[in-house]
Amino acid sequence: MAGIRFFNVHRTWEDWFGMALGLLVALSPWIVERPQGELPMLNAITVGAAVFLLAETELVDLHRWEETLELLCGVWLIASPFAFGYAEAELATWHFTLGGIVTVLAAIELWQDWTLTDEQLVKHGR
């Protein structure tokens, strides 16, 4: 039961973890393998930057739309290997995994903040 209560409150470490995930997504083409095309590389940089900036924005000024966009970034990261034709590459496995983690993290944060008022959201991190 204590584990469930742990996830009831949006904590700042979740935002820092989201920023780290964004950085990892952006660097993933170079971590995994040498980039084999512009599209997967640009996709990783764009999605990684978006996840990083959204998580950073949550840390500073929390709103539900940030978590919703972060969730969509995670879903896109899972779908993008199929959309851009690199589903067989090792990079796709990384993007599936990182996209799943981003999606789960954003869903947890959205669930935590769903019933909060605007005044309560403003107090986040303070």
Written description of the protein model:
Helix 2 runs antiparallel to helix 3 (38-60). The longest helix is centred in the C-terminal third of the chain and has 24 residues, at 90-113. This protein has helices spanning 2-6, 12-32, 38-60, 64-84, 90-113, 118-122. The protein starts with a helix and ends with a helix. 79% of the residues lie in helices and 0% in strands. The chain has six helices and no strands. The chain has one domain (12-114). The chain has 126 residues and is an all-alpha fold.
Structure summary:
The chain is 79% helix and 0% strand. It is mainly α.
Please indicate the count of domains: 1
Order of helices and strands: HHHHHH
Number of helical elements: 6
- Mean pLDDT, rounded to whole units? 85
| Helical content band | over 70%
Uncertain stretches: none
Query: Which percent band covers the strand fraction?
Result: under 5%
Shape: elongated
Helix/sheet category: mainly alpha
Number of strands: 0
Question: What would you report as the Rg, rounded to the nearest angstrom?
Answer: 15 Å
Main β-sheet, in a few words? none
- Distance between the amino and carboxyl termini: 27 Å
